[in-house]
Amino acid sequence: MLRVQAGDLAAFELLIERFQTMLHGLAISMLLRPEDAEEATQGAFLKLRSRNGQTYPVVVPSTGFAVLGQ
Fold first, then answer.
1. Separation between Cα atoms, residue 32 and residue 16, nearest integer Å
2. pTM passes above 0.85
3. What is the pLDDT of residues 47-70, one digit of tens each?
4. What is the structure's pLDDT at 67?
5. DSSP 3-46
6. What is the pLDDT of residue 70?
7. What are the domain boundaries of the chain?
8. Which CB contacts under 8 angstroms, 24+ apart, belong to 55-58?
9. What is the pLDDT of residues 5-63, one digit of tens each?
10. pLDDT for 59
């Protein structure tokens, strides 16, 4: 997490790879609709990224996951 907070893109991608499935599963169990769960999962990672003041988009090819931001 310290590397993510320091703006390390590779560390952020690793964080997504490790926790995306678990977070998405939790979101589905709470929200019931896959579309809502996907949006919530992306939103959670976006909040982590934006806390660092970074504006780069992140796409993790191994998962197909994207955090695009603004």
1. 21
2. no
3. 777 655 555 556 666 566 666 554
4. 61
5. HHHTT-HHHHHHHHHHHHHHHHHHHHHHH--HHHHHHHHHHHHH
6. 47
7. 2-67
8. 56/9, 58/9, 58/12, 58/13, 58/16
9. 777 888 888 998 899 999 999 999 999 999 999 888 888 887 777 655 555 556 666 56
10. 61
Q: Token pair of 34, please?
A: 């896959």
Neighbours of 14 (CB within 10 A): 14
The one-character DSSP state at 52 is: T
**Burial zone of 67 (CB within 10 Å; 0-12 exposed, 13-18 middle, 19+ buried):** buried
Angle (nearest 5°) at CA 56 between 29 and 60? 50
- Angle in degrees, CA 6, 10, 12, rounded to 5: 65
Compute the distance between CA of residue 8 and CA of residue 37 in angstroms, rounded to an integer. Answer: 26
At 69, phi and psi to the nearest 5? Answer: 70, -160
